[in-house]
Write a structure and sequence with these properties.
Belongs to the glycerophosphoryl diester phosphodiesterase family. It is a multi-pass membrane protein. Residues 70-108 are annotated as: Disordered. By secondary structure, the protein is α/β, with parallel strands linked by helices. It has 3 domains: 6-102, no CATH class; 106-146; 163-415, Phosphatidylinositol (PI) phosphodiesterase (TIM Barrel, Alpha-Beta Barrel). The chain is 38% helix and 19% strand. The protein has 12 helices and 15 strands. It has helices at 71-91, 94-103, 105-146, 178-186, 213-216, 257-263, 278-290, 304-313, 323-335, 366-380, 383-391, 402-408; strands at residues 6-14, 20-28, 38-44, 50-56, 163-166, 191-198, 204-206, 236-238, 246-248, 255-256, 269-273, 297-300, 347-351, 395-399, 412-415. Strands 5, 6, 7, 10, 11, 12, 13, 14 and 15 form a 9-stranded mixed sheet that branches. It has a two-stranded antiparallel sheet with strand order 1-2. It has a two-stranded antiparallel sheet with strand order 3-4. α2 packs across α3 (105-146). The longest helix is centred in the N-terminal third of the chain and has 42 residues, at 105-146. The radius of gyration is 42 Å and the shape is elongated.
Length: 416
Amino acid sequence: MARGSVLYTLATHTSGRGNVMADLVLGDLIAHSGQGQRGAGICEGSRGMRATAAWPLLLPLPHPQLSPAAWPQASSRLSRSQGRGSSQRWSQPISARQSERQHSPSGTAELTAVSAWRGSMAMSPLLYYALPALGSYVVISMYFLRRPHLLHTPWVPAFFPRLGAHRGGSGERLENTMEAMENSVAQRADLLELDCQLTRDGVVVVSHDKNLSRQSGVNRDVGSLDFEELPLYKEELEVYFSPGHFAHGSDRHMTRLEDVFQRFPRMPMSLEVKGENVELIHKIAGLVRRFDRCEITIWASEKSSIMKKCRAANPEMPFSFTISRGFRLLLLYYLGLLPFIPIPERFLICFLPTIINRTYFPFSSPGLNQLAAVLSKWFIMRKSLIQHLEQRGVQVMLAAPRKCAVQHGPSTAFQS
């Protein structure tokens, strides 16, 4: 076959009116020698149809529905149906025809549809694998959230407190005094929550504040005075969880931690360390060992750096969550990862968000403070979270007024 000749086939189909339409599939034969080469042609018909043909350039391809004798008739009908403009269109280069399609309304719609189809085909494999994997992960996470014993050995609690006394029972007596603690024990409190400071002469005392202004009206730090120089408490102190309400008591003396251990030898206690005072931490650890209280005395602190030092000083004592560890706990819970993560803490000590006052929500508007409390309660007070922790041996203790402590049931509640 001579170089530059054109080989074509006729593809027929029946339209709605019964006319036979034919689309030409054209290909230019570019032969580099006298022998035939393989080629391919891509073209469009009168209805915007596209066809691709691959053939050997040695022999024309016969159409299955047309005999060679019927080819001239079909070609004539094709020319009459498409008109002269269509013939000119076939003679245009491929780039020109593509440009024409892009600027025509029907061509633009077709290209848009093709692009959308290609995008959906690209996303299909991702959705095909991602959605079942995500669904399986959610089911597995929920399964182990309710059955943590299948993955973890739960802690064995040494005691089971149900009513704790915040600051020794600050809601009815002056906070952290011996009188307040005895009053709390008389009302069946089975855990004392205390804060510790160190005096200048190395005595560990029970005091919430480092500075004595709020408690005693003296603008001095506990660490700047000897134990014998510590001033008396004020005659009344505002209740922490009830602004505007005041506690009174006849005992106004600051108490040594050693005296508390002697007075209540088997009473479980939570000792909070607020400053990074290594001497204070080691003295507390020594007193706990001296009175054989390692299993019933809890390390507590808001900062993870302080908690690290406490655990190093006495690793036999159980410890509670710090603030950062508490936020991490919530994040793992909402991501579904909590059932698969080990928990070294044995206690979660938390305030009920609805009773937290302006100290923790610094907004000037009472409405914003209330909204923050409601949102905090929604995120923290999750029944499935508390049940999961308790099944793993982590005891949840919530700080609340005593009337709330009776209502909230299963977890420990601190009486203020």
